[in-house]
Specification:
The complex is a heterodimer of chains A (about 110) and B (about 110). Chain A is an all-beta fold and about 110 residues long. Chain A has no helices and eleven strands. The N and C termini of chain A lie far apart (about 35 Å). With about 110 residues, chain B is mostly beta strands. The chains are: A mainly beta (about 110), B mainly beta (about 110).
């Protein structure tokens, strides 16, 4: 089944404790991105990747890191999480940068930072 | 910063009625527009895309685009309780941002039985 997977789905952590949210897709998609979704603010892009080893900042990159060492994986790293990073996170992928290709979303990761 | 604006709602309609969702965008060069549906706690799913001025119909859904007015809408005919969700308008950027989708904040639709 073609899908985007994220792990963990739920995470409660404490300020300053490094964490990684994994994202994997099995569709051989080139383009992957991370969003956060907050009430009243909508979906905002954190980072995106056009292909392996090609990443760039989205609209709200502060406090996050990403890497793209393999085509299928695009982990989101929070080196020192803070309470304002409490949010619902979505990974997404699509074939190529062209927007004509449908963008698929993962199931989401609900993160709480205490 | 390119913007996509939607009424946050909630928009409440009776079952069987037409629900009308609206979206305006600031990037005059945008060429591609999308509607996503998102159930509470779930991920967004694509329901319609539109690239040309006019109407595009798919089942009970009709997307309407007016590039001159920078306006895109989604009509849902014969609304069902299962249509109750948040609807996100997304716009493809132009020029150097043509890889980027910008989302509106979404409109919450409630269909009452």
């Amino acid at each position: 089944e073609a899908q985007v997977t994220q792990n963990p789905r739920y995470l409660i952590t404490v300020t300053g404790k490094k964490l990684t949210v994994t994202c994997s897709q099995n569709m051989n998609h080139e383009y992957m991105s991370w969003y956060r979704q907050d009430p009243g603010l909508g979906l905002r892009q954190i980072y995106y990747s056009m292909n392996v080893e090609v990443t760039d900042k989205g609209d709200v990159p502060e406090g996050y890191k990403v890497s793209r060492k393999e085509k299928r994986n695009f982990p989101l790293i929070l080196e020192s999480p803070s309470p304002n990073q409490t949010s619902l996170y979505f990974c997404a992928s699509r074939y190529g940068a062209q927007i004509y290709n449908e963008q698929f979303f993962g199931p989401g990761t609900r993160l709480t930072v205490l | 910063q390119k913007e996509v604006e939607q009424n946050s709602g909630p928009l409440s309609v009776p079952e069987g009625a037409i629900a009308s969702l609206n979206c305006t965008y600031s990037d005059r060069g945008s060429q591609s527009f999308f509607w996503y549906r998102q159930y509470s706690g779930k991920s967004p799913e694509l329901i319609m895309s539109i690239y040309s001025n006019g109407d595009k119909e798919d089942g009970r859904f009709t997307a309407q685009l007016n590039k001159a007015s920078q306006y895109v809408s989604l009509l849902i005919r014969d609304s069902q309780p299962s249509d109750s969700a948040t609807y996100l308008c997304a716009v493809k950027g132009s020029g150097g941002s043509n890889y980027k989708l910008t989302f509106g904040k979404g409109t919450l639709l409630t269909v009452n039985p």
